[in-house]
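Illustration: DUF4296 domain-containing protein.
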Amino acid sequence: MKLFIYLFICLSLSLFSCHHPLEKPDHLLLKTDMIAILSDIYLYKQTPTNFPLDKETAFDTYVTIFKAHHTTKEIFQNSYVYYYADANALQHIYDRVIDNLKSKLTKDQQLQLKEELSETH
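Result:
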């Protein structure tokens, strides 16, 4: 009987230890979609402008990015929160974002990106 209880506890622990800490959202973006969207957002943030953007213009730009990727702000946010709860998945996403941006950014911008991403963890 003790063996059965011990096996049940071990099996339960192993099953729950592999479980994601959050419930999967109904419309979860694929990691590849998250990588593409985050890359576009970062590129937008790095675009030099000669004038300060008001909140409405910035919001419109984000909406345009989400539309280009056939998603919404809410789906993106829910997906980001889901992946944020899984450190390995989020690290994979950010590593791929850095890879995507290496060919598009200057060395200074690449360093800034690494610093910003390390601050989010």
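Reading the tokens back as a structure: The first helix runs from residue 2 to 17.
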